[in-house]
Design a protein that fits this description.
Layout lengths: L5 E4 L5 H12 L3 E6 L3 H10 L4 E4 L5 H14 L5 E4 L14 H29 L1 E7 L3 H4 L5 H20 L4 E9 L2 E2 L1 H4 L3 H9 L7 E2 H13 L8 E4 L7
Helix pairs in contact: 1-9, 3-4, 4-6
Length: 242
C-alpha cells in the first residue's frame, strides 16, 4: 500500500502524458505510468520519477484494463487521480476512411469509459474522494478536416466529463476536462513548416503551447481545484474560448 497519493496517467510515455506524469510527481504523487507500446520511453520516465512504476496495457482490450487494475492494486493499493490522456488518431478524409480505421480511433474512447468505471469502483468510491481529468482537444469544439473520428471522440470526452460529474454529485470525486490547442509535441514536430506557420497564424499568442503548460492545468485540477467540476478548461493561446 502507498502512503503517498497515486496518480494514474494513461499514454504517459511521451508528450502531454509524460509532462503530466512529471508535474504530478513534483506534486508528491506516486505516478503509474501507463503505456501501450513505447516501453523504452516509459521505463526511462519511470527511472526519473521517484516511486513511479510502469503499466503496460492496450486500452482497447477490456481484459487488459482488468489486468492493469489488478497491477495497480497490488503495487499501490489506491488511485487518487486518473488522467485520461491516451488517444489515437488516423488522418484521412471521411470518404476514403474505412471502418477499421474509424474503430482504431473510437475504441480508445471505449477503453477510457471502462477504465474510468473500474478506477471509480475499485478505488475512488472506497476512498470517498478522487479526481478525474480528461485530456480532450480544441478540435472537439472547432472541428478539423481529415479528423472526423478524432474530433468525435474528443467532443464525446467532454460530454463524458459533464455527464459523469453529474452522476457523482454528492461525492468528493470531481471530473474535468483539459482541452489543449496546438501543442509542441513529437506529433506536431513532424509537421511541415508551412503547416506549422498556418497553425500559429490562428493563435493570438503567436506560438504553439508546451506540454508543460497543459500539465500545469492538470496538476491544478488534481490538487487544488476543489470547486471546479464538470468543466472544460481550454489551453490554446486564445484561439478558441469555449
Amino acid at each position: 500500500m502507498s502512503e503517498n497519493p497515486v496518480a494514474l496517467v494513461t499514454g504517459a510515455a511521451t508528450g502531454i502524458g509524460a509532462a503530466c506524469a512529471r508535474r504530478l510527481s513534483a506534486e508528491g504523487f506516486r505516478v503509474a505510468v501507463h503505456y501501450r507500446s513505447s516501453a523504452e520511453k516509459a521505463q526511462k520516465l519511470v527511472s526519473e520519477l521517484p516511486g513511479s512504476f510502469g503499466l503496460q496495457a492496450d486500452l482497447t482490450d477490456e481484459s487488459a484494463i482488468d489486468g492493469l487494475i489488478k497491477e495497480i492494486k497490488a503495487e499501490a493499493g489506491r488511485v487518487d487521480v486518473l488522467v485520461n490522456n491516451a488517444g489515437y488518431n488516423v488522418n484521412a478524409p471521411m470518404l476514403t476512411m474505412n471502418l477499421a480505421q474509424y474503430d482504431s480511433v473510437a475504441s480508445v474512447a471505449r477503453g477510457t469509459w471502462y477504465l474510468s468505471k473500474m478506477v471509480l469502483r475499485r478505488f475512488m468510491f472506497r476512498a470517498g474522494t478522487g479526481r478525474i481529468v480528461n485530456i480532450s482537444s480544441v478540435v472537439g469544439h472547432t472541428g478539423n478536416p481529415g479528423q472526423v473520428p478524432y474530433t468525435m471522440v474528443k467532443a464525446g470526452l467532454d460530454a463524458f466529463t459533464k455527464s459523469l460529474s453529474q452522476e457523482l454529485v454528492g461525492k468528493d470525486i470531481l471530473v474535468n476536462s483539459v482541452a489543449p490547442g496546438f501543442i509542441d509535441t513529437d506529433m506536431t514536430e513532424v509537421l511541415p513548416d508551412e503547416i506549422k506557420e498556418t497553425i500559429v497564424s490562428r493563435v493570438p499568442q503567436g506560438r504553439m503551447g508546451t506540454a508543460d503548460e497543459v500539465a500545469d492545468v492538470v496538476a491544478f485540477l488534481s490538487t487544488r481545484a476543489s470547486y471546479i467540476n464538470g468543466t472544460v478548461i481550454h489551453v490554446n493561446g486564445g484561439m478558441y474560448g469555449g
